[in-house]
């Protein structure tokens, strides 16, 4: 019994440094959430400032901004989720069919790379690539005679670039989990199928897909929690005034309202709303994941 | 394995090969293009003639880059920051993961801790409270403000926890019978066994920290104390011509247009990640696999 | 509002180059502090304490009085990127600041510095304000409206000092006269409930629109110098047809119109032709408040631009180009015509010459067809402001600082410093709070004197110190250099002085000026809520009229009624009321 107690103590001690950091940098600032319901006066501090009830939310919904940023966020996030879901699966299946090992490895190495580069830098590159006198427009006009397109200045193209560059950056990384699941499929199944004269397509359909079905369901359900995460770093570094209407998302708006306009109450209010909705989504997604994929986060 | 190589299968193979090669090319193209720009003559780069190889090869952009003392100051801030953060995070996360990987019966407060972590992963108090706390702690302008808030990554901790749980219980029990305490077990049994996942989380953190740009912008007293990405964010993304205003200044700039210099800076900023990444690749693959795919 | 913020900043930056002694601490023209001074500053609570400040109650108001004991104060400052200073000089410690500090016996302590760029300074200041962590004295940057909004929040939170009596008691005669020269309107902008809370910058009026033309091309194509806007358009068409750059890459009109209807490199020169000022609330002929952006004159100008767009005189994506892209275009030598202020040749037009040695840019002042005058709509010529933290013992310190600075900015000491010590630096005047307080006609008057001296109407010996440089350069260029091949690029300095002072400002002084000031530079409640959206609406309408519209009259009318309905009318009513209550 004594040993048990000392073990508990040691467990707590082990957690201490990490928990201290969490308490200081994450839990302590959380008191600031009440700013969403206050009129903030710097000299009075967060606690001393007066309560205003739901006024900040009222103000928020009085302008068309709130609706717009919510719509943008959801639309962009859903598009990213949809494409970002199917492409890695397809890509993993294709890689799996490859027989040239060195080539497979090379492709893998290359497609994982973009995941590790920062949006700050990628945005710098994309801005040049998609400029009106950039390489894409040059090639389009040279080989197809297409008039230069304002890729980053038109709503449709901007969103397209936001979605596709996100896929570009992340699809390779997304294949890892499927490739792992694929290696877990028992090779004897394939051998048996071949004995029976199964075609490639048949093997794919009856062995491969069922083999990774659980993983697919898992990834699908877990991605639900991202409905309100449309990608701050990416959009923040790429967008411009011409496309605010179609690409200002919650996170970028919170940033602008707070740091550029000094409306921290509004920023907090909309941020809190996002967190709350996200929380619900996460609970749902974990519930679904545990129900359908037998998955536990911890 | 016996294979029936029909012409149709052969064609399918080739189509597959081409498709995948194309995808790989797409992934690497922007980076190669950027590299080509950085080595091109400014005039060619501006004209949009550069695709995947430099036109009018020159290293002028890199020569100019070497004159930019701020770039290197911030570069070293980043290196220092990444090294320190990943080092601390390695041990702190490891220590956190062990008790959290015990069952609820073995460690009574386990679930309470776990829920707290998940909760802070989701909610945050916003910038102003964070700012006030940093101020209260006396961390304004301190290098530590770039490090401390980055150390704990809940997602990484969970990865390690999940990995620990795949380690057979018997190992733990045997060690206990031999009189090993929890500290001994963490460092002598779990740490060596968990190297793949620890390498993964360290790599993830390394990338996250290298790419982070907000903290430097908000808390450092001037740009050369901030990390490289903060500087790059100010530079690449919003090139402001008001920087150039004296005749002499622009004379220097004229031989190296923004475009080639910008590309050179982007490339050098990416370089550490790209240089390290092939070596770490096998770790993050095995790590993420073991951490997230269960049963 | 009427002018892009960058425009203001650039104007100041150019002033810096032209009249080297005149420095602007507006920030954009400054670089990083060189990191020499690493001491202290970590202490976030340093704000309140000023140990060394003596409470000398018997001090008599002396605008230039030196403090008996060194007064230390904390501050922050906006800077530029990538400073290159002589050894031992930095943003925090340099010969300019040393001079100022010695004059007054004061010592600034920098809590932080941040680039003006990408609004880094503004964001950090916003955090400091909301974190109740402001330094003793600091500068607020932004448009007058931005500054007023920040000021109001500071006053509401009781964070800053009332400077009314500090100004009354301590402002020097020069400073007071300069403000009075523009009816103290600039000071009034920063009064709340009759109290002066900030010391503003006041610049001279200078940003009239000139049409800058590649004169080497014009001469090559045997075209006459333009007198009217039709001449200018004809030159643009000729540039399109004859393609002097070659390869079909000539851009007849380089134009920026991304988020401001008439900002830097914008189509302001076209709007001026119709006495239209797209971002200005002003008093019209019958003394009613009118918004420039919805006047019929705008429509006339847009029709011209739409035709220009159809004819390929504008780039297809001109609406997307930011200042940086425009600068690249101008530097590349592909552009033929661009609208810019008189100082355009100092930035960025000279960059063309570095890539194209034969190039020559020349400015033309084109009077409007409607009234034969040079029209110019502007907000009040105000820049950044300085405020003092509540409780700081010496609220008069910034007033005295500005006294000393403005007394000396055109003097030999500062001029020599920038020409010698800071000769090779990319910021020639890294002074703290170098806020000019100038009378409105300062620059035009200087130009008149210089032109007079060149023409021999005035004795050059009587010119003030700062104008002699320009005079000598112009004289040399006109008498000896201008007919030599590649004269501009081989004699950059002489050419720049000639084009800016002599051709641009000198040219403009030959016409009658019609300056239209904004009637209201504050912010009404509806403005606060809706002006951003209205401005977006305006830009969208202009863009689509220029690039897509098939029925401009109908589309413009639609925009006007949308603008009015979505809050525009409400704003005008509110402004009228606000002015009536003043």
TrEMBL record, chain A:
Give any Pfam family that matches: BPD_transp_1
Q: What keywords tag this UniProt record?
A: Cell membrane, Membrane, Transmembrane, Transmembrane helix, Transport
Q: Which SUPFAM superfamilies match?
A: MetI-like
TM spans (from-to): 12-37, 69-95, 107-126, 171-192, 204-224, 266-289
Q: Where in the cell is it found?
A: Cell membrane
Signal peptide feature range: none
Any single GO CC term annotated in Swiss-Prot or TrEMBL for this entry: plasma membrane
What's a GO biological-process term for it? transmembrane transport
| Alphabetical list of InterPro entries matching this protein | MetI-like, MetI-like_sf, UgpAE/MalFG_permease
Domain ABC transmembrane type-1 positions: 70-285
Q: Output this protein's name.
A: ABC transporter permease subunit
Native species of this protein? Answer: Paenibacillus sacheonensis
UniProtKB/TrEMBL annotation, chain B:
- Main localization (coarse): membrane
CDD domains, per database record: TM_PBP2
Q: Name one GO biological process term.
A: transmembrane transport
Q: Which residues form a coiled coil?
A: none
Question: Could you name the domain of life of the organism this protein comes from?
Answer: Bacteria
PROSITE patterns in alphabetical order: ABC_TM1
Specify the ABC transmembrane type-1 domain's residue ranges. 75-280
According to its UniProt record, which protein family does this protein belong to?
A: Belongs to the binding-protein-dependent transport system permease family.
- The keyword Transmembrane helix is assigned to this record: yes
Pfam families, per the entry: BPD_transp_1
Listed name of the protein: ABC transporter permease subunit
Species in which this protein is naturally found: Paenibacillus sacheonensis
Q: Where in the cell is it found?
A: Cell membrane
Membrane-traversing stretches: 12-32, 82-100, 112-131, 143-165, 186-210, 261-280
Q: How does it sit in the membrane?
A: Multi-pass membrane protein
Q: Can the keyword Cell membrane be found in this entry's annotation?
A: yes
Q: Which UniProt keywords apply?
A: Cell membrane, Membrane, Transmembrane, Transmembrane helix, Transport
Cellular component aspect of the GO annotation:
plasma membrane
InterPro entries per the UniProt record, alphabetical: MetI-like (IPR000515), MetI-like_sf (IPR035906)
From TrEMBL, chain C:
Q: What keywords were assigned to this record? A: Signal
Source superkingdom: Bacteria
Where in the sequence is the signal peptide annotated?
1-23
Compositional bias (Low complexity): 30-56
The protein's name = Aldouronate transport system substrate-binding protein
Q: Where is this region: Disordered?
A: 30-63
Question: Is Signal tagged as a keyword?
Answer: yes
Species whose genome carries this gene: Paenibacillus sacheonensis
